[in-house]
Structure formats: C-alpha cells, structure tokens
C-alpha cells in the first residue's frame, strides 16, 4: 500500500475471552457488506486474514493478550471503521482508533507488552507543510530538548553526514547519544509530503528520532536494539507508515521496544 492509499486502523489487545463466536459471526457478516477490504493483522502471531472469512478468523488465532490491528481500506473504509469500532469496542481493549483513543496507564499496566524495561519519553507532531530534511531535524531537536535544540540539531546533522539514516521504505531513524536526555527519547514527525532523505531507498514520510543518554543502561540499549531491528521488517515498518493515530504509533513503537518482531 502506498501512503496515498487511505486506510483506517483500530489498534487493540485481545481480552481474556478471545473473539466470541457471536461477535465473529457479526464481524464476518458486516465485512461482506462494505465496499472495502476488512482484515485483521495479528502482530503477535504474525498472521493476517480477511474478516469476511469465518475460517480465516479462526486461523488468525486471536488469543488473550495478542496485539492486533483491524484495518479497513477501500471506498467506504472510513464508514466501515466507524461501524466496526462500535461492534468491537466492548470485545477488545482498544489502544487507538479513528473514533476512540485510550492510551493510558491502565492499558500499560494490564499489558506488559507495552512497557519496555526502561522509561521512554515520547513526542509526536504532524507536519502541516512541506518541510526539508534540515527543517525536520530542527523540529525533532526542538521536540526533544527545546533548551539546547541547536546543539542537538548539530549532533543529528553530523550523524546524517556520515550516512543517511533511512531505515526502511518511507521511514528514517536519525539517532544519536546525547547528554541532553536522561532516558531514551523518541520524537516523531509525520508528513503527508515526501521528504528527500538523501537515500537510495527513496523519500520518507515518517521520521523517528531516537536519542539515548550518554551512559545508557543495558536495558536502554536492548530497547533501542529491538526497535531498530524491528524496523528492518517490512511488515512492521509499513504498519508504522499507515498508522496515523499518534497513540497507535506510540503503542507500536513501545511494543517493538519490548521484543524482537
């Protein structure tokens, strides 16, 4: 899927009862009525299925605690997302959707899959205009450490001078170690406009800055390593590209920092 293909996503955890047969039957029936593709991506089990298929819903294996997304893409994808949000909101623990958004301590306390072994600061902003690579790096620096943003910007620029930090299709991961942070800090700028990142991989739309403190602990290094390795997975990187809700994006990144996908 290209970025200009609009899809709608519900990010959720499966509750103790899994997917009850009655709800599965309703989901299959409704999915067939829309002029859009409706499918479930079980991130934990690395399986996906068309929601129109009763057998597929069984095979996707929605087990308690699984981290998933329900995705609608097509002519009436927004309406399908709206209707299915109502159907599934009491069945699953929603992390983020286009209609509902509940990223809270309750969710993170219930699901350790969203709790890395170290604290992580998280910042997000949506670009409102066409920005250059320099402007993106400057914006990331201001998000992470406004007081000394020029120094942090310089460090990010020097890192880019060594080699482009484009990590996957449409994603860049500028990363440095800095005394300006005390814990791993992530800042994301998302742009609907392609940004030239001086990479053979092409332009990027999601830029994720990762800054570690000068003396990172083993847990910090492991969390950062899990994230960078997960970005090498095309499936995971494209989830990030197509997940537009900030809290859904945050959940995906925290999930990746807890285990290797």
UniProtKB/TrEMBL annotation:
SUPFAM superfamilies: HPr-like, Phoshotransferase/anion transport protein. Residues 105-256 form the PTS EIIA type-2 domain. The keyword Protein transport does not apply. Pfam families: PTS-HPr (PF00381), PTS_EIIA_2 (PF00359). It comes from Aliivibrio fischeri (Vibrio fischeri). This is PTS fructose transporter subunit IIA. It comes from the Bacteria. PANTHER family: NITROGEN REGULATORY PROTEIN, PTS SYSTEM FRUCTOSE-LIKE EIIA COMPONENT-RELATED.
């Amino acid at each position: 899927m290209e970025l200009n293909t609009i899809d709608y996503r519900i990010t959720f955890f499966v509750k103790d009862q899994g997917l009850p047969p009655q709800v599965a039957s309703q989901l299959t029936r409704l999915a067939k009525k829309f002029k859009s593709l409706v499918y479930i991506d079980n991130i934990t089990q690395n399986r996906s299925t068309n929601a129109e298929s009763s057998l597929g819903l069984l095979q996707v294996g929605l087990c308690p605690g699984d981290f998933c997304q329900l995705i609608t893409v097509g002519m009436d994808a927004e309406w399908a997302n709206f209707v299915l949000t109502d159907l599934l909101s009491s069945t699953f623990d929603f992390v983020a959707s286009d209609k509902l958004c509940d990223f809270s301590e309750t969710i993170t306390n219930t699901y350790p899959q969203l709790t890395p072994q170290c604290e992580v600061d998280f910042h997000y902003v949506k670009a409102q205009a066409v920005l250059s690579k320099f402007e993106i790096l400057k914006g990331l620096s201001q998000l992470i450490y406004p007081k000394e943003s020029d120094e942090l910007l310089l460090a990010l620029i020097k890192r880019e001078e060594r080699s482009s930090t484009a990590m996957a299709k449409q994603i860049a991961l500028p990363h440095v170690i800095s005394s300006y942070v005390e814990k791993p800090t992530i800042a994301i700028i998302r742009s609907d406009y392609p940004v030239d990142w001086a990479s053979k991989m092409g332009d990027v739309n999601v830029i994720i800055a990762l800054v570690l403190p000068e003396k990172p602990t083993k847990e910090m290094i492991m969390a950062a390593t899990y994230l960078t390795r997960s970005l090498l997975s095309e499936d995971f990187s494209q989830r990030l590209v197509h997940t537009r809700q900030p809290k859904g994006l945050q959940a995906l990144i925290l999930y990746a920092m807890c285990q290797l996908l």
